[in-house]
From TrEMBL:
Regions of compositional bias (Polar residues) in chain numbering: 550-561
Family note: Belongs to the STXBP/unc-18/SEC1 family.
MF GO annotations: syntaxin binding
Region Disordered, annotated ranges: 550-578
This protein's GO CC annotations: Golgi membrane
Listed Pfam families: Sec1
Residue ranges with Basic and acidic residues bias: 562-578
SUPFAM superfamilies recorded: Sec1/munc18-like (SM) proteins
GO term, biological process aspect, one: retrograde vesicle-mediated transport, Golgi to endoplasmic reticulum
UniProt name for this protein: Uncharacterized protein
Length: 578
């Protein structure tokens, strides 16, 4: 089944189009049914693989003429008659490997594409290596792609991911031991990624940010990069032929860059929606989840189905009880269509056995036509069954984790704390029976965030529970320090961050009566209420042109500190775009 092609109006669609053109030797990708592609080798580093993997499956790479896709750092055999397309980060290590490839004339021609801009020093190193290896004529192109971000969905992207062996940006920014060089490198990296997003979309955003923190530094760098690029008439990324005429002057989106500390509870809150639970419990990464398939084997499930998985598209943001019911309805509908096929088989006089099975090929065409809207084709029915089985396995694993870690109880407790409600039991009694240390810390931190006026004795009780479970107390101490040196307490009191509601509502009368395999006995059936987070309020305040001083976001650009300077820069921006 062909994948659904994303629209060019989305960031994901534009990134896919840019990658396809890059793989097609930096030419617009053509239909393989019209012209045969140039067969080539795709060489990537780990980050390039992470960018391409959620967007272009192996089948589409084959259609673009990629016969082999290899990692840069691994040993590769010489293919002197084959062109090679490189897609790598311009690091010293990667440049050194490409230098060796050029010196040894590893491939017939070289199309070197860097994820972020390649500086002059490294470019000169590549030129020297090509000269030494007599491969200057083989270097066809060296292109800065500005694609250092990962599009997971049409409306969701992430910058470079961090694994268990690397610190997150939030940790680096708030770590007192972080050097000035490390901080500058991190801010530049984030700014490069955001600039690449703007360049890929072909838009010049209106930038807003709080002042006095890393968000302001990032905003200033993004603004400077955009202004410098707009001044460069030869390499202007915002006036390419693919950009709609007049877009720069008529459509300028808002880019709000905020500090994570403004909304810590959302990051820590135990979730109850399907996609968030998969990410939290099963460690969803790159739209893929690796888990036990129920038969003792580890299996990887790909949830980025390009729009073909209607159940995921419709219910990924729904509460888990709603998803469980939807899965059961899908199972029943599939079984109904399967039974209809069997009845048609019997009506056509087809029995069992190898002879009848051999006749199924000619029978299927007539049978599917008679099924009409019920079954469009057998491959579609089999694909639907595969997706149902996939979601059934994932949901069953989620249910086991919910029961084991009591996630339904944690969600309800946190919801009550956020809406300043009364807990049925003291918090220390609620978390004393928890077995997962991370769950204990998350609840304890949310408790401290949503109760800024706690007394010393109440705080000490929470600390004692953490100590009894032999957990690291540094997170709790960090929250206390944040509250002492910032206006986080005031922000929490003035916002609706701790005003979200939650409630119980039976959703399973029909679900349970049908004897579902996902029968949620012993699990509370909670339906969360929608709430506006601090970030949502910031956006609403800016769009409504109201005074945002109450939420700490000045109505200025990243580097404007007065109204006069802001008006001057707006005039300058109009002159550049004109």
């Amino acid at each position: 089944m062909d994948a659904v092609v994303p629209t060019m109006e989305t960031l994901r669609g534009r990134q896919i189009a840019a990658l396809r053109a890059m793989i097609n030797l930096n030419q617009p990708a053509v239909n393989t049914l019209v012209a045969e592609p140039v067969w080539k080798v795709l060489v990537m580093d780990k980050y390039g693989q992470e960018i391409i993997s959620p967007l272009l499956p192996v089948k589409q790479l084959r259609e673009l003429g990629v016969t082999l896709h290899l990692l840069l750092q691994r040993k590769r055999e010489a293919l002197p008659d084959v062109p090679a397309v490189y897609f790598v980060s311009p690091t010293d290590e990667n440049v050194a490997v490409i230098e060796e490839d050029l010196k040894s004339a590893l491939y017939g021609s070289f199309f070197i594409n860097t994820i972020s801009p390649l500086n002059r020093v490294r470019l000169e190193k590549l030129a020297a290596a090509a000269y030494q290896g007599s491969t200057i004529q083989r270097v066809e192109k060296v292109v800065d792609q500005f694609l250092n971000f990962i599009s997971l969905e049409d409306d969701l992207f992430v910058l470079r991911p961090f694994n268990a062996n690397t610190n997150t940006p939030y940790h680096i920014i708030n770590d007192p031991s972080t050097s000035a060089e490390e901080m500058t490198s991190l801010i530049d990296s984030i700014a490069d990624g955001l600039f690449s997003v703007c360049a890929t979309l072909g838009v010049v955003p209106i930038i807003r940010c709080p002042t006095g923190n890393a968000a302001e530094g990032i905003s200033m760098r993004v603004e400077a990069k955009i202004r410098d690029n707009l001044r460069d008439a030869r390499n202007n990324l915002f006036v390419a032929d693919s950009i709609r005429s007049g877009q720069l002057s008529s459509s300028r989106p808002l880019l709000l860059i905020a500090d994570r500390s403004a909304d810590l509870t959302t990051m820590l809150h135990h979730t109850w929606s399907y996609q968030a639970l998969v990410h939290d419990v099963l460690e969803l990464e790159q739209n893929r989840v690796r888990m036990n398939d129920g038969n003792g084997r580890m299996k990887e499930y790909d949830l980025s189905t390009g729009g073909r998985d209607e159940l995921w598209s419709r219910h990924k943001g729904a509460a888990f009880p709603v998803v469980a019911e939807a899965i059961q309805l899908e199972v029943e509908e599939y079984k109904g269509k399967e039974e209809e096929i069997k009845r048609l088989k019997q009506n056509f006089g087809m029995g069992e056995g190898t002879e009848m099975d051999a006749a199924m090929g000619s029978f299927l065409t007539d049978a599917t036509n008679k099924l009409g809207s019920t079954v469009t084709s057998l491959p579609m029915l089999l694909e639907r069954k595969r997706l149902i089985d996939q979601h059934t396995t994932v949901a069953t694993s989620l249910l086991e984790a919910i029961k084991e870690r009591r996630l339904d109880l944690l969600f309800e407790i946190e919801q009550k704390m956020m809406q300043r409600g009364q807990l049925e039991k003291p918090l220390v009694d609620e978390i004393a029976s928890l077995t997962n240390g991370d769950d204990v810390l998350r609840v304890a931190v949310i408790y401290l965030l949503c109760h800024p006026s706690l007394g010393r004795m109440e705080k000490e009780e929470v600390m004692n529970v953490v100590r009894e479970k032999e957990l690291d107390e540094s997170a709790l101490h960090f929250i206390e320090k944040i509250k002492c040196v910032s206006d986080l307490t005031r922000s929490l009191e003035n916002s609706s961050l701790c005003e979200a509601g939650g409630g119980s509502k039976s959703m399973f009368s029909k679900f349970i009566s049908h004897g579902s395999n996902l029968f949620m006995e012993g699990v509370k059936q909670l339906i969360p209420k929608k709430r506006n987070t601090v970030i949502t309020q910031m956006v609403d305040s800016i769009i409504a042109a109201s005074t945002p001083s109450t939420i700490g976001v000045p109505m200025t650009t990243a580097s404007s500190h007065s109204g006069e300077r802001e008006r001057e820069r707006e005039r300058e921006g109009r002159e550049i775009m004109d």
